[in-house]
Amino acid sequence: MMKKKMHNQEESKLKNNNKTTDNKENTDSPEIISGEKGDYQVTVDPNNDESDEPSDGGPIADKVVREVRAAEEKLAEMQDKYLRLSAEFDNYRKRTLREKMDLSKYAEENLLLKIIPIMDDFERALQHIDISADFDAMKSGIELIYSKFSEFLKQNGIKEIDAMNNNFNVDLHEAVAKVPVDDNDQKGKIVDVVLKGYYLHDKVLRFSKVVVGE
């Protein structure tokens, strides 16, 4: 009887020891948590007094998303503006090039329109040469045409270079010959104009061809 009681007490102690061991193993073993993306193992430290709840990062994540979307919208807007400006500049370049070509092609249009009436006057004068015997009238007609043409040149910025009896100037004159002169004051000066020179505004359009005394 005594042996049986002692045996029961030892068996009870053994069970208690096994139960304590099982509880310790259950405490130290990782906890299995099931979720939508699979099972996760979480090790729970019984000595950790901190809260197991994760920190709330939601508002920060939302702010980052909003900033990224705003940056993408700004980038798309800038790209659209760039494409529009590029297209407008290309159209402007093509239009300007076309206008320059037209300008170089038809730049003389207004000038020629003003010359045509003078050409008409010459044609009328040539017609009257054959049928008119009045030399003075023909001379007056030609002088009138010449005066009209000279005025046309002045209106368009063309004027004659003054050369006769002036000092020779390589920037304005072109010497075609030199002749000896008796007057010392005529040496180095223009004694004859073979072909008149002209300015176009302040630029030399054509040099005067002159004879210089020496």
**Contiguous uncertain segments of 5+ residues:** 1-6, 19-46, 48-56
CATH topology of the domain at 159-214: Nucleotide Exchange Factor Grpe, Chain A, domain 2
> Radius of gyration over alpha carbons?
56 Å
Summarize the biggest pleated sheet: 3 strands, antiparallel
- What percent of residues adopt helix (DSSP H or I)? 55-70%
- The number of distinct β-strands equals 8
Indicate the structural class: alpha+beta
User: Order of strands side by side in the largest beta sheet?
Assistant: 3-6-7
Shape: elongated
Strand content: 15-25%
Name of the CATH class of the domain at 159-214: Mainly Beta
Mean pLDDT: 78
